[in-house]
Design goal:
By secondary structure, the protein is mainly alpha-helical. The protein has five helices and two strands. Strands 1-2 form a two-stranded antiparallel ribbon. The longest helix has 29 residues, at about 105-130. It is rod-shaped and about 100 Å long.
């Protein structure tokens, strides 16, 4: 306890009792600079994981839509000029999503991809601020 009080230049009473308000922190000496804020690695890991999960999910849905037939809207005209609306089997992304009711899955995957991209953008923005010498507030 005595070593801590010497390190922070406060009395042991102030450390043990904590009854008085502490003065604001002194600026670093003239020869030293405040350490630059480093970008938060958690933002990088979370951003990569979310973006990869969302992108992979969207990719899997697209690949499945090219492999599984679904009903596609089709129109045809007969010899009398009448238009007939029907469906035919084929491969297309949105009809596959609708037929198999995957709108929520597609939405979650896309949201995950966008959230990951936003976190990666925040990581890069904080990293750029640290390189420029600006100190970013930590969250």
């Amino acid at each position: 306890m005595v070593e801590i009080s010497r390190l922070f230049r406060v009395s042991t009473d102030d450390l043990l009792l904590a009854e008085r308000d502490l003065p604001p922190a002194a600026p670093p000496p003239a020869g030293e600079q405040a350490p630059a804020a480093r970008p938060n690695r958690a933002l990088l890991v979370a951003g990569v994981c979310l973006a990869a999960l969302g992108g992979l999910g969207d990719l899997v849905l697209w690949v499945l839509s090219t492999m599984v037939e679904s009903d596609l809207p089709a129109t045809s005209m007969d010899g009398l000029g009448r238009i007939w609306y029907t469906t035919q089997r084929g491969y297309a992304f949105w009809p596959f999503i609708e037929e198999h009711r995957l709108q929520a899955v597609l939405g979650l995957c896309t949201l995950s991809l966008l959230a990951g991209a936003a976190l990666l953008g925040a990581f890069l923005w904080r990293g750029r601020g640290a390189r420029d010498g600006r100190v970013q507030p930590s969250a």
